[in-house]
Amino acid sequence: MTDYFLTIWSSIVETCPIGQVLFERNRVSAEPVLTRSSAKRSQKEKAILKAAEKVFAELGYAGATTQLIADAASLPKANVHYYFKTKQEIYRRVVYNIFDIWMEAAAVFDTDLGPKESLSRYIDKKMDLARSHPDGSKVWAAEIMQGAPIIQDYLEGELLEWANDRSAHIQRWIANGEMDPIDPAHLLYMIWSTTQHYADFGHQINTLNGGKPLGDAQWNAAKLSIKTVILKGVGLSVE
């Protein structure tokens, strides 16, 4: 009965302007309530986004469909349309999610830790995320390589502001003589490209590793190697 209702509701949302307005008003303005129902809703949203992350990573935005996402999430297509009105809305949420996770990893810049500890922890966290969220990283990379046709506004807003703030932190360390002079932007680019390589080019790494993913010891060795090169490159020790 629930799936039947969702199918009817999905049809109304897609074809009726009034239905779309009511859908948006209810979805945006509704206050979150910690109930079994809201918890179930949250679980379904997470399942849809996790499935979408994989579908977008494998097929790209153009190749993905809400039906494929629904199939990957083991849910009726009507459920997907109930929680997300369009494929683009799902896509933007997937991209925003991976960026939010990356921003959390950079929270170490907002502490009183110096450059050595902050950069070390940031690299460790970015490497851990490359291992735990490879599909999200691939979706981001594919979007950027195509010229960011869907999230350019996000790059010019949130990403630019965030990157400028991190660069300011690095510049203060340089001004205080805590690390060697270097263009902060290029230091960030180097960290991003190196750590995200382990997600975006995971298949290549696995192939060169005898056809299997890196083990825990290998992953830790990779993190240490990256930290050694980057930290020593800006006049910091690793120990």
TrEMBL record:
**GO terms for molecular function, please?**
DNA-binding transcription factor activity; transcription cis-regulatory region binding
- Family matches, as Pfam families: TetR_C_3, TetR_N
Q: Which GO terms describe its biological process?
A: negative regulation of DNA-templated transcription
Q: Which UniProt keywords apply?
A: DNA-binding
Q: Which domain of life is it from?
A: Bacteria
- Could you tell me which SUPFAM superfamilies the record lists for this protein? Homeodomain-like, Tetracyclin repressor-like, C-terminal domain
Give all residue intervals belonging to the HTH tetR-type domain.
42-102
According to the entry, DNA is bound by residues in 65-84
- Has the keyword 4Fe-4S been applied to this entry? no
Q: Which InterPro entries match?
A: Homeodomain-like_sf, HTH-type_TetR-like_transc_reg, HTH_TetR, Tet_transcr_reg_TetR-rel_C_sf, Tscrpt_reg_YcdC_C
This protein's name: HTH-type transcriptional regulator RutR
Q: Which gene encodes it?
A: rutR_1
